[in-house]
Amino acid sequence: MDHVDPRRLIPRTNELLELPGVREAGTRLNGRVIRDLVQHFQEQSRRGELAPGQVASALLAAVAARRATTLRPVLNATGVIVHTNLGRAPLSAAAIEAVVAASGYVDVELDLGDGSRSSRGAGARAALLAACPAAEDALVVNNGAAALVLATTALAAGREVVVSRGELVEIGAGFRLPDLITSTGARLHEVGTTNRTHLRDYAAAVGPDTGCVLKVHPSNFRVDGFTSAVPLDELGPLAKANGIPLVADLGSGLLAPDPHLPHEPDAATALADGADVVTASGDKLLGGPQAGLLLGRKEIITQLARHPLARAVRADKLALAALEATIAGEPPPVVEALHADVGQLRRRTDTLAQALGVPVVAHEGRVGGGGAPGVALPGWALRLPEGVARLLRAGDPAVLPRVHDGSCLVDLRCVPEGDDERLLYAVRQALADLEVAGEGRAG
Ligand SMILES: *Cc1c(COP(=O)(O)O)cnc(C)c1O
Fold first, then answer.
1. Would you state the pLDDT for residue 191?
2. What are phi and psi of 3, to 5 degrees?
3. pLDDT, mean of residues 99-104
4. Tens of pLDDT along 117-165?
5. Partners of 400 in the β-ladder
6. Overall pTM > 0.90
7. Which among 179, 219, 334 is the best mutation to test ligand 1's pocket, defined by most ligand atoms within 8 Å of the CB?
8. Contacts of 33 (CB under 8 A, 6+ apart)
């Protein structure tokens, strides 16, 4: 008998595309994506890594599992509320509904009454002003960094931004404030020292070349010891006397004070203290979509809105919809997690611990996202063997626990109560898989 090259047994492309499960996937996946999968398994088989007879079943399984998005929802069991690697703030139900409503054609720049063009994002602006009456006007841009660069560019390009050396911070990976501010043509005029800056330092620095004075909230670290910084309510009068705008970068996005976060600056207080404009993020403590908020004096906001850069950093319709609904709707998950009842957390954790037969340990949650670095949020966690972490992350639903001191800790603070059953299922699954892998349960 002739020797048959097994590669000749690999099903042909047309044959595979005609499989019912593959045809059905054509209603929800791009044709190219399906053909790429077909090719992938054919090539695997050509390399001898997959038997020709298994190509069809492998393809069917892959096609059934393939979604148009590769982003996967994750249960956040870290206790870190604004988790940058998990997309910061989860949206409220109201915001999700608004995003869905805005995803088609929507009157984001249209007055349906008379059919004329209207100002973009008027609803989000109105919501911000209603929630923060201290602001005369508001503008929403792409993110907090964009808000800051727009403010410093419009007010100080070709001139100086006066800022304390103690506030020239790196916010996140690769995002350094001084680089950002100088990238569009403003010059930095640094005053004071790393640990101490006085009002007289600012007073000596401001002059005809000053475009604005900038006060940055060093949101992701604390300086202890021999330190001093000039509060906004002392900078305000100085800026005012010199006719120079005072910009406050708050970062966190609190619109009003939160008694749980006494050291976290908020827009209303900053404006009352004399800031002419404040910048903040939409997806930190406000609990909304990625957005940059600018709130403050009307003439300055107008000036910023008219700057050419404003068009390059404008917010998209989905973010505008979600932002408005975050402010007008029920408290978003970030606020709920921040104010979670400790007793309730304990009861939920105990219930899962009993069902699983694992211990409960005290565990402190964090605000995260470069906010309130010193604030610990008392709570609880399930303590599991460290090896479970990897299995939880890869599981379905995917769970991100905290790995600490040789343990895998599962904190329920940021898990919606309605997901406790799914979390229980995921942990049970991961523990079982660990048993199978023979790593035991000790820990
Ligand atoms: C987070 C933060 C920013 C950047 O905001 P993004 O929304 O991440 O662009 C800027 N300044 C401060 C003080 C921050 O905390």
1. 96
2. -75, 125
3. 98
4. 999 999 999 999 999 999 999 999 999 999 999 999 999 999 999 999 9
5. 76
6. yes
7. 219
8. 66, 68
Protein residue whose Cα sits closest to atom 8 of ligand 1: 144
Q: For position 440, what pLDDT does the model report?
A: 54
The C-alpha atoms of residue 401 and residue 404 are separated, in whole angstroms, by 10
User: Considering only CA atoms, which of 410, 396, 391, 375 is closest in space to residue 78?
Assistant: 410
The string of pLDDT tens digits covering residues 167-182 is: 988 877 677 889 999 9
Contact 300, 139 (CB under 8 A): no
Residue 226 — very low, low, confident or very high, per pLDDT cuts 50/70/90? confident
Q: Which one, of 250, 170, 176, lies nearest residue 216 by Cα?
A: 250
Q: Which atom of ligand 1 is nearest to the CA of 217?
A: 13
Residues enclosing ligand 1, CB less than 6 A?
A: 143-145, 148, 171, 216-217, 219, 249, 251, 281, 292, 370
Tokens for 87, please give them. 């997309």
Amino acid identity at 347: R
Question: Cα(161)–Cα(181) distance, rounded to whole angstroms?
Answer: 8
Nearest atom in ligand 1 to the alpha carbon of residue 282 is: 7
Q: Which two tokens stand for residue 426?
A: 């995921």
CA geometry: angle 102, 108, 113, nearest 5 deg: 115
CA distance linking residue 293 with residue 286, whole number of Å? 10
CB atoms within 10 A of CB 413: 27
Please give the Cα distance from 276 to 212 (Å, whole number). Answer: 10
Dihedral of CA atoms 161, 164, 170, 176 in degrees, nearest 10, equals 20
Q: Is 206 helix (H, G, I), strand (E, B) or coil?
A: coil
Task: Identify the residue whose C-alpha is closest to ligand 1 atom 7.
Answer: 144
- Using DSSP's 3-state secondary structure scheme, residue 83 falls into strand
- At residue 371, the pLDDT reads 67
